[in-house]
Task: structure prediction
Amino acid sequence: MQYDHILIRYGEMALKGKNRKSFILQLQNNLRQQLQEFPNVTIKRTQGRMFVLLNGHDPEVIMDKCKNIFGIQSLSLAIKVRNEEEEIKAAALWALQNEQGARTFKVSVKRIDKNFPIRSQQMNQVLGAHLLSSTIGYTVDVHNPDMEIKVEIRKEATYITSSVIPGLGGLPVGSSGKTLLLLSGGIDSPVAGFLAMKRGVEVEAVHFHSPPFTSERAKQKVLDLAEKLTNYGNKVKVHIVPFTKVQQHIFREMPDNYAMTIMRRMMMRISERICKNESILSMTTGESLGQVASQTMESMNTINEVTNYPILRPLVAMDKDDIVKISRKIDTYDISIRPYEDCCTIFVPKSPKTRPSREKVNEFEAQTDFSGLIEEAVSGIEVVTLTGKAGAEEKFNDLF
Result:
């Protein structure tokens, strides 16, 4: 006997109404994408549950993949048997004896198939008595057991599970539209992308590259960050914008204390063009309110003026320590701190304006024509599509 299934439990998706099916189908598709390297694995759905059929594959490897998929509240290795009392007893005994270190247990039976002749509470007693009589050194503890043997008696079969592994929760990536993530290469933006994906958003990324002031290593750093995000969704398309001429013009022609604000407005204008070309409905940034000069309420208000697209800010109320904690858990922190400058850390003004006004910025921008520089930057965009499945550390149990 061996574990031959992984039982997938839904979280927030289970509360959806008439469109619940579309969320479940998206989760099923995402599972298929993440498990495509395992040709014999199949996925099936029943009422309120989804199952991964292992078909001989190593269950721990498959579990590690499933733990990275948004939309899964929890998952368990499961044994599938027929709705026969003796088979259920044998499977429950095997599960108990194969749980390392367990000495106390609890049995929880859920009888979804009302045609099964033994009621749930009675079946709890039947299985508990069988396990006690068939083993030595085990006791029942209904309040704080070392393991809980869960038995789901469904119409098509019975599934026995023991350990419950937390998933990432959230919604399946792709169920909430698409966003363009402004990916700088710092600590914050990949965390913002991760949290947007948790809400079911598919992510594309834009990076503003300013050679020779920013190096190829800085560019590779951003691609490595984007590749980490593929662990939690599918592919991530990165739009690399040649930003040198725009940036040089800003810091040569615009007032020094307003240069950062104007630079970010240009980024938004270019990002909006990408959104229109790619049918993307929003932008996402790693901004946290008050963290730096460009992230004050006044700065956000002035920068937002140039676009009507919604700007998602998943980190807006987070402290830096909170952001760093998540970046470590999703395995992006060590990449983000590589000492390669991005376009936001070069040409830094000595005293950037923390409360820029829209009127002043519009007055400065009216003195020069940026349209040609923007067109040149848009026409020179390089697109890199990442589909890598590099492993991420599993450290989520205490995160959400």
Q: What stands out?
A: The longest strand covers residues 72-81. Residues 178-386 form a domain with the Rossmann fold fold (CATH 3.40.50.620). The chain has two domains: 5-166, 178-386.
